[in-house]
């Protein structure tokens, strides 16, 4: 694994661009810097004519623990006139014009789950697991997943994932259709790069046109869903259930984190 | 089982509201009184801040045998200026703002099937079965199911269910995704109340916001589908195929009913 | 098998109309004559009150090898003021007002795959296989499949089918939901006519109304998808990737064809 001081690592394998979430000590939780780093890396890959396919994965033991809770509901503090954080990130993901493959190398929480229905293919390590804890945190669904999650796994499974906030183990993720393939942890990147490489051998103009046409059939709905979600989410942030839930969740997350670190 | 003179029984289990169709001698077939009773119970549960989740089930051996055929195409006879019957019922169901769980305790015919894609989760007794007999009755799909049934089970399965009007046994309902879980008949309410209770422990504001966001991504389409279905259905009621089919169906239903009563 | 000089054979089995693609020496590849023949046969079946269900299948060893590549991007050469070829064909298919069943008797390439999500039910011979080679040909998705294919098989499977252009064997087609039933090759027509006959016994007015209502919930989207696809496809035809890919594909197809002929 290449070492890096950056919270996002970028490398290329032929025409495959690999973007790695790289805050392993924070289980790759998204702060604004990481959002902005991934957004920049995605935009660069979209514009680069030598990139045909993009893979997103995480370093260390997690895919991503999700939104950094300290930042929940906090507008970016930058004063540079640029847009930062979650919204530019998800706008870039939801309209990404090239095949986008996720390699879920470890636990995915929050955006670690809701990112996946934006990806064309998802491969997952057999010991990884996913969770959408929004409702238990006193908030609600995000990232266009009020449209995309039922499309990906059906209404009942989407409802159950969101309402119960249960952890979902890799085999169930596969059965639900939330991921396309589950592989042994040690084979994850090789398997991902194998399918990514086969796709990257295709004519880029045809890949881009096909991805844009697939997106065109749902993108208006995805954006409308996200635009309904944002004020609804914001209205719940800081309410009594959210405050109480975050305290409890942070305690539990710290315990989980300790267990993971020790496990 | 609580005894009741009403065609709809309502009770609470913590923050779970249970609504039981209760015309067991008529296999819980919907007449206007039962439609209005369920509509009132749903509206009350939606408005009650102490209700987080609603369960709908039937008493006796059926979930519901569907629309009372004597009433098919007959406008309500009430003269009280209020709206009655099917339309207010389905309008209430299709936009229901809290998690709605069906416990299919026995046979479901007509609306006994088309109600299910409106529910967030459906549990089904292993000896129950479902049927959408509309086409064989000379009428057509209803209750927004021209949109919702393909979403729930895919186009081919929706088409086959509607075109053939075959009975669908519980294991196939599970395989198709028409129901979420099949359980032994004796465990149905315990399993249903277990998942309902786990969801009901979540913050109600988050559950309601999440349900409304999920609905927002499909509700306009559901309503448009239902509004196309209603005149198309009405145009077929009383036609020669409908008259002939109802006579034959009533004979068969009476025979089925006799078999069930004796079985 | 009835012999025929026509590239489309039409026969009836009770209220079931059977349309057979009949250019077996060309693996039933579509030229304008075959498009026009199927379009005419479908229109006649739609208008005939004695036809309740339509089956489409192929003669010989292929379902259809797809668009005749010699004609790709070539406007029809007829000078009779009528519309010809692919567009009237797909417009007729996408809005077909009666149950439409495909019996995939052998390999299906291109429109041989993208036709299937337009059908209500698809039965497939166990030794048949399908492929959407558009991207490898330097072109893109067609026939409304930027909407329909994700609806039929989910986003990830649609993306993978289109991006990789891999052959899909019958068991995987079944698993993906691209087909409804896989049967032994020798049983294909008997099984198809069995389900077609059961549906054809239903009141035609109810079948037509039900099919139209099901279509109404997606048809606007299908047409919009197709109208986005057509200029995008045309913009890629004749480009360098397309020219190079067609040469390579034709060599490979000739080899495949030789293998099939010898196999």
What report would you give on this structure?
3 copies of one chain form a homotrimer. Chain A has helices spanning 32-47, 86-94, 111-114, 145-153, 155-164, 170-176, 188-200, 204-216, 219-236, 240-262; strands at 8-13, 16-21, 53-58, 62-64, 100-104, 107-109, 121-125, 129-131, 168-169, 181-183. The longest helix of chain A is centred in the C-terminal third of the chain and has 23 residues, at 240-262. Chain A is of the alpha/beta class and 263 residues long. In chain A, the strands form 2 sheets. A 6-stranded mixed beta sheet of chain A has the order 1-2-3-5-7-10, with helices on both faces. Chain A has one domain (8-262): 2-enoyl-CoA Hydratase, Chain A, domain 1 (Alpha-Beta Complex). The two termini of chain A are 21 Å apart. Helices cover 46% and strands 16% of the residues of chain A. Chain A binds chain C through residues 99, 117, 120-122, 151-152, 177, 180, 195, 198-199, 202-203, 205-207, 209-214, 216-218, and chain C through 134-141, 146-147, 150, 154-160, 162-165, 221, 224-225, 228-229, 232, 235-236, 239, 241-242, 245.
